[in-house]
Amino acid sequence: MLAALTAAGCAPGRTVVPVRMQPAAALAAPPAALDLSSHEATVRSVAGVIVRDLGLPLPDTVTVYVYSSRSIFEQGLVDDGHVSRIRAAELSDFAAGVGKRRQLLLLHHEANVASAEWVRLVAHELAHVSQIELAEGEGRAEQWLAEGMAEWVAFRVLERLRLDTVVRRRLVAVEAVRDHEPVMARRLDLATLGTPRGFTVRHLREGSQPTYQLAYLLADYLIARDGLDGVVGYFRSFATRGDRRGNFAAAFGQSLEDFEQEALAHLAKFAH
To answer: How far apart are CA 127 and CA 112, in angstroms?
Structure first.
């Protein structure tokens, strides 16, 4: 199983839980092992699905920071996540979690530690930790694909833990993007959505829900077409080459621009 080490370095409003990851073969099969009674138990359950069921890598240890308010979260991004103060202030305005290399930094100010939304957030951010392991660095891949794949992983975790279904989540995503301006205008501008800054600007301007659900539907389509292994290979390619456009073309056999046109044709099926 995943063994949680003793929490250390705790301060008012800030909980630190280092979680050691054991080999996938040692993970108990959820939902028999489902335990959402604490933050560390939730991380154990989610990581079990990610590592054993989906075959994605996680580092030997992930340090989980849980903050009880947005102001403490913002300071934690600076102190624990080594994020610039300007970027921390921006992220703390809208984000509820950040996945970094071998770190999860999460905002949680409710008593309930077993909600589907909390599990989704943990799974989404752990997926980012996995992507960073694959790419051997942060922010290297297309941001829309990083965010979309993280949601793809999160929805499968929810289904495996019997908290939701992928079908329902996909339907919610479709409803969110039917009237989304970039979809209606038939111009997704994936080049802008591909950078961390561009993605942030777009979702602040166009709405967080439709932007993230658009990213999910794009990733869902790409994984259905080329398989999860193809997307994993794409992230791995950044460990040896930092060429975003070149890596995308090599992994998926087409340019980003050609994929955008193919994706628009796919999304057009959902239009009113």
So the answer is: 22
